[in-house]
Design brief:
The chain is α/β, with parallel strands linked by helices and 200 residues long. Helix content is 47%, strand content 16%. It has three domains: 6-63, no CATH class; 69-132; 140-199. The two termini are 34 Å apart.
Length: 200
């Protein structure tokens, strides 16, 4: 979904080019860079830099790795001993609700769409909500976003480390580029230290 990894580097170097074609072959979750591109955004931010989208963006839905409704229903029908309960934990809320209704109508198997932080117990075909994690502030989305951004930052640093190892060890990068990267990393370190000092 173009959120982490080398794809972001490829996009940064090709999105601006009207001779490039970016071909998406799978589902792009809302809010992701991939979703923004598929939905026609003309300008996106990658590594803090605004990139004009001049490349041709194409999308082939048929190659998606996610089973569609019909196949998911066929999977449920295939059980000799039917499940006592089905949990839908993946997909967009609208799609989950539609699938839930179809499962209920065709199989009569109870379906639950759990919320974030919910834990359930299933004993003798009886389902009970055992625990619900409650965030005690009205800024729930912001707090979750901070954690999500921290994970993305960690992934980006790991990707960058791998790419730099290859570039520096094979001496593909010029000395001036390596010096520039070094200065940017020093600045990033300083910014991280400032954030930590404000938290602690």
């Amino acid at each position: 979904m173009c959120e982490v990894g080398r794809i972001k580097h490829h996009l940064k170097h090709n999105l601006w080019n009207p001779k490039s074609t970016i071909l998406f072959v799978g589902y792009q979750a809302p809010g992701t860079l991939g979703s923004k591109l598929v939905n026609g955004e003309k300008k996106v931010k990658i590594f803090g830099e605004e990139i004009m989208v001049n490349a041709r963006i194409e999308y082939i839905e048929g190659y998606s790795g996610h089973a569609d409704q019909e196949w998911l229903l066929n999977f449920i029908y295939s059980f000799i001993q039917k499940p006592k309960q089905i949990f839908l934990v993946h997909g967009e809320p609208e799609s989950q609700e539609i699938l839930k209704q179809k499962i209920l109508e065709t199989t009569n198997i109870p379906v639950t769409i759990p919320d974030f932080g919910e834990t359930y117990e299933l004993k003798e075909a009886k389902l009970t909500l055992a625990h619900k994690l409650e965030l005690t502030t009205r800024y729930k989305p912001l707090r979750l976003e901070v954690l999500d951004r921290m994970q993305k930052l960690k992934d980006e640093v790991e990707d960058m480390t791998q790419i730099l190892k290859e570039e520096i060890i094979t001496e593909k990068a010029k000395d001036a580029e390596v010096a520039s990267i070094n200065e940017r990393i020093k600045e990033l370190e300083r910014q991280i230290v400032k954030i930590i000092e404000r938290i602690v």
